[in-house]
Amino acid sequence: MEELSHLSQDFWNNRYETNTTGWDLGTVSPPIQCYFDKIENKDLRILIPGAGNAHEADYLLQAGFNDITVIDIAPLVVKSLQEKYKHKQSIRIIQGDFFEHYGMYDIVIEQTFFCAISPSLRSQYVTKMHSLLAENGYIVGLLFNCSFEGGPPFGGNADEYIRLFKPFFNIDLMEPCRNSIKPRVGNELFLRFTKK
Ligand SMILES: C[S@@+](CC[C@H](N)C(=O)[O-])C[C@H]1O[C@@H](n2cnc3c(N)ncnc32)[C@H](O)[C@@H]1O
Fold first, then answer.
1. Of the residues 1, 59, 64, 106, which has the fewest C-beta atoms closer than 10 A?
2. How is domain 5-21+28-195 classified at the CATH fold level?
């Protein structure tokens, strides 16, 4: 797998070590909370890749979802999650590379993971997501609708996302996000892409 050295495991671990985690909302992302508040089936198999401190997982657990998997490449953050959830059966915490993960899920949550990987890996992200989803499975979450200098985060726009995802996913929904956190207002798309 191609990987930029500055996006390695060490790079991300160092961000947690030095507490330079400006992306971390400290709580569940409001659009994702809103979406899951409407879902009644708590048995759905949910994957959260690049979960970081996994605030979304925390919210889902409290809401009664009982089949959650989180994966992150940074050992430090994963260790703290493993400690936090050591007595919880409903959540599985994996330290590893999303691109090397195998499993079968009904929903994958996208929350500042796509923007964290090298743009050269975007097509691999799409095919990997496709292979991790069950029939009728889908990705739900947020993608940036803006560009950044340097990166991560790496930006993007709706046209690019359609080009990338449409061969493998139905674009059920991709619209300006109505309930972004303040610093991201106007810069996020809320999406749901169902596996073709
Ligand atoms: C920008 S952070 C977002 C974290 C979390 N989603 C949030 O919003 O707080 C990106 C996360 O992806 C993880 N990551 C980066 N590359 C990864 C990979 N190939 N596989 C799994 N996790 C990865 C990093 O360790 C980091 O925790």
1. 1
2. Rossmann fold (3.40.50)
